[in-house]
Amino acid sequence: MRQTPEAGQKTELFESYRPLLFSIAYRMVGSVMEAEDIVQEAYLRYEATPLDTIQSPKAFLSTVTTRLCLDHLKSARAQRESYLGPWLPEPLLTDESTTALVNKHEMISMAFLVLLENLSPLERAVFLLREVFDYSYAEIAQIVEKSEANCRQLYHRAKQYLVQRRPRFAVVSSNQGKLINEFLQAVQTGSLETLTQVLTEDVTLWPDGGGKVPAAPRPLVGRDRVVRLLLRGFRKLLLNLNIETVEINGALSLLLWAEDKVICVVNFAGDGTRIGEIRSVWNPEKLQHLQDLNSKSASVSS
Description:
By secondary structure, the chain is an alpha+beta fold. The chain has helices spanning 5-29, 32-47, 57-81, 110-116, 121-132, 137-144, 148-164, 176-189, 192-198, 223-238, and strands at residues 199-208, 220-221, 242-248, 251-258, 261-270, 275-281.
């Protein structure tokens, strides 16, 4: 069926804002697939609204998307509280084609998204809209249906919390690739000395199996414990897998393939000289959106 000029214009306008809407939704809910569903629902509501009644498509779509995220988080809170083991966000593939909205790497890192989980949904929305997307307090007040004064309080409370607990390690460093290569070679060859040198003394490993696959029920802290795990179970596993280095959530990461299926994403952060944090996502439900990559770079707008 041929689109009318108005329908075509509406679709074109929506597509121009899709990267922004996905970026808001993903940071809010921490799930690629759920963020895509929310953006699609925002489109359906936009499509059902006459264009001449929408003063600002950006404001309309941002409002609809944010409110859908808030509704989603209210219903998802119980699931998060009963989640088995450490919770990590769904890995987001980022590359050179990713829009400038994701260039604030610390605001898309796994560590930052995990930290956001400790904020209330409203605090999270206000902080992200202000800090990441540069909305004014007047705009935010309209989106979340609170007063400007209330939004200022929510923002400052959220920022104070995040600053006090901000990640110790950066996701990007000049020798990040070198560190990951040394890590991988050390695990594959069983080199205790090299692995010890490449990890900080207080390195922490977060395994997210979500109760779907075997994984440690809590984070492993300390180089000795992490090294033992890597050289025992993880080393044997790597021998039967294809391994690809990609950028995930703004940081170089390992994509582990068993034939044509992604079974794990390993994400790193460090101090520039050593790796201090390792986050491994094993939960197959969080890897479904990566299955069609088949070792090819994907263009993900976020």
